[in-house]
Amino acid sequence: MATEGHAAVAVAGAARRRVLFFPLPFQGHISPMFHLAGVLHARGFAVTVFYPDFFNAPDPSRHPAFDFVPVPDGRVGRGDGDGAGGDYLQATMASILALNRRCEAPFWQRLAALLESSGGDVACLVADAHLLTLMDVARRLGVPALALRTGSAASFRIFAAQPMLRDEGYLPARESELDAPVTVLPPAPYRVRDVTMTAGVGGHAQEQIYEIMSRAVAAVKTSSGLILNTFHALESAELAALRRDFDVPVFDVGPLHKLSPAGPAASLLRQDRGCLEWLDAQSPASVLYVSFGSIASMNAAELVETAWGIANSGHPFLWVLRPDLVRGGAAQQAAAVGLPDGFDTATRGRGAVVSWAPQDEVLAHRAVGGFWTHCGWNSTLESVCAGVPMLLRPCFGDQPGNARYAEHVWRVGLTLDTDGGGELERGKVESAIRRLMEGEDGAGMRRRAGELKSGAAECIAMAGSSCLSIDKLVNHILSL
Ligand code: UDX
User: Is 29 a catalytic residue?
Assistant: First the structure.
């Protein structure tokens, strides 16, 4: 671990200080927060994690070095948020807003109690940037608050640019202009659909997402610092733009999964480690890994097209089929009943299907040669750091923008052609997999992904940019 060398040079006094953490309770936000907590713990800070105990709660027994404070309230889960309606994207947005509201009073009580008993050792709160209300609570109680943005620097620039994108007439988006280029955010290669965060016109979700993004920007502007899970070699121009546009210190401390010992303990679901043994028996760079993160979903027809595209490509594959991946009536049994008749026979001996994988280790396995991803930021970062090229099929939020960077800036990915309509078709899936795994294009992407992997390794090495940023963050926290 790159942090081990640094543990010995923990800044004097850090051992007496405590950093509080409050992650947003979704896997893609919890993992980087726990990794960051692990990094700061290795630098000598005591760690206390606050968490809403009604939804995606972490298991304290898996993090024996950390203290935990549950923040109780009525249920707020994805789909339970006020005004959630039937749409899962809106439901997620609604749950973020509801979480802020409902946790405000109980968080105040618990933080006040901790401050009273702690003997003045609390240095700051690090909260997910989506938790503006809770950061305000901390400040009102005299605790400085830093914001962790778990997405890329480029995606946060989209958040900050929303008012300007409205002034310039790009947003609210019109159907006929979704593929028009956005020229006001150089060097980003965005089209209008990449900056809506709904990947389309959006309707009511557009206003809800606008509110979510405005609140995240306000959280950062009023914070004592912005922490980003990215690294200089990947996003130097975007980091420079954020430093220019925001009057708070910016710490690019990623890729955090490479720096922290927290690893699999941060996973909310049990990871099926048997797939690593299956990978051991496969040839180098032969396996396509398929996973769509923890939230993205597809309908039953898309599942069928995905399955036959994979089967017809002839390539070995490891597919994460989450129990809730498929929307609709049979969702909960999708892993058991969703795969089409004949799929098993057609792929016997060259495929493995699991409900949740140790993704980081899978991507680092020598047998994996490509990753079909929904382009969540953690998945994108994990793939880049493992030198694995990607087949890109973004869904919503920051994912379309991440895909544009992967394909057009870093040139380590290939977007799955869905005819602009978003529908999957088995023939296109098959040919895209072949292009990624067999062709010249794939070889070029693999080579460039390898270069980014080296860039990441340099950033997290001793005296690399990410390690220096962590040094600065430690000193900053001690100075607050
Ligand atoms: C969400 C958003 O979708 C994403 O765009 C945003 O940047 C963060 O929040 P999610 O959709 O879950 O996250 O995707 P991603 O960011 O890729 O995070 C998924 C995490 O789950 C990754 O760290 C990945 O390693 C892990 N994972 C995924 C597993 O551990 N096992 C699996 O089988 C699949």
Answer: yes
